[in-house]
What we know:
Helix content: 55-70%
Strand order of the largest sheet: 1-2
Shape: globular
Number of helices: 18
Largest sheet: 2 strands, parallel
Strand content: under 5%
Distance between the termini: 51 Å
Structural class: mainly alpha
Amino acid sequence: xxxxxxxxxxxxxxxxxxxxxxxxxxxxxxxxxxxxxxxxxxxxxxxxxxxxxxxxxxxxxxxxxxxxxxxxxxxxxxxxxxxxxxxxxxxxxxxxxxxxxxxxxxxxxxxxxxxxxxxxxxxxxxxxxxxxxxxxxxxxxxxxxxxxxxxxxxxxxxxxxxxxxxxxxxxxxxxxxxxxxxxxxxxxxxxxxxxxxxxxxxxxxxxxxxxxxxxxxxxxxxxxxxxxxxxxxxxxxxxxxxxxxxxxxxxxxxxxxxxxxxxxxxxxxxxxxxxxxxxxxxxxxxxxxxxxxxxxxxxxxxxxxxxxxxxxxxxxxxxxxxxxxxxxxxxxxxxxxxxxxxxxxxxxxxxxxxxxxxxxxxxxxxxxxxxxxxxxxxxxxxxxxxxxxxxxxxxxxxxxxxxxxxxxxxxxxxxxxxxxxxxxxxxxxxxxxxxxxxxxxxxxxxxxxx
Length: 450
């Protein structure tokens, strides 16, 4: 076996061990408690009708919240695949094969998302991407999984070859599955694959079969997703607590409501809304003009990640997050982040600054530091989660009248979405269902003792 192959196997093994341990100890939070309890089974028995059409994501979270082995194996494989496919995209851009530096860089680009989780502005968490995707099981199945599937298509679509029937069928399956996790990813899959089809046919009079089969799969997946009755209910205005109301102007209202106090001058609020709307419209016009020039010049491959980033973000403008304090959840930008990473990698590669000795050393040092930071941060979270669960279990065994539930400090809460509780809040009831705590037993929230 070649030395390089041995080194790659070692890196794959290191990745598997790291994420295997990560997901073995990762505590449940938020929606995880619902999916892991009888609530999840009730939704499954109803085929998720009236809930949402995220069939793949829903099925996956039901499985991995009920089996530790399934969780460790599945989540580890997905994270390994994410890093591998990202490194393959880097290899393709740089014209290399199985570059160790590219793999380490891909690994680092995933873990660097841990750092912004520590940035907080009061109750607003605009940078909490890692903690609401990789570090939260419910976010993992709905965002990390389809992101990997879309990156697989991106790799196939931007690289020559793969013209066998098996590759086409794989892409069709890939497209269908990618559309069954979260709605704006579904729309992106349709738009992205259809745009490539149009581009190739208009300029080269050829049908891109890889895009065609992915598009067919996306259509199948979209039809399955939006056949769910929940979307028809949303269109008629019958929106339940777990759904998100749709409306562009509703989103503008949410922004202004969050930014301005209730007694703010209404003229000032109106001016702000008009200015924000004008800014969005101006950007869209600029984007369309630039896109047209890029397409006409036949140089799409260079800015393609940025085009994907913008197209993926557009549906979010029409999403109102209802009663939540954020407008669009940070996890919605998980794939956009990697598109930005790919774009900057190409830009740096074109400057011929990659794979020099110093660059390789910097990447290795960065990865070691990020692995250490991630292990420390989530090690603390895991420890607190174990203590919380052990305390609750011991209390239930004594049949006490009150169960004390530890509230994490803010420094820990930032690295996992919805890991804490609020009095009379939905997650508290979901936790009660998950732990089978009888209604007659009171739950008291207590601060964590350092």
